[in-house]
Predict the structure.
Amino acid sequence: MTVALWCILIAICLPYLCIGIAKVRGGYGLRHNHDPRGFLDSLEGLGKRAYAAQLNSFEVTPAFAAAVIVAHLAGNAELVTINVLSVLFITSRLLFIICYLADWAILRSLVWFVGMGLIISFFVVSV
């Protein structure tokens, strides 16, 4: 397995890190287990931002996974390039989550654009 393929697994796991933060911060307990989505909708502050980061992570992960797989299948990009782009993407996602939790909205948006640029880069290097 390449580093890039391991990064797909990391990207798949990142939303669960976010939701863990949301549930811990929101005082989630077994009493909320009957309606966990209702509980998440009631969050405020850090918990709400962690939940939003989780949703965004679920939205972007399929695009990242597809980009990595396309780059591997196209065979035109150097493996080291694909691996570096993957690590940079995961780094951008971690920074995105940190910015979301810290409520740094402008920086968060800039980091999001960097991540999207990295996804596009997989296709560009695969030509």
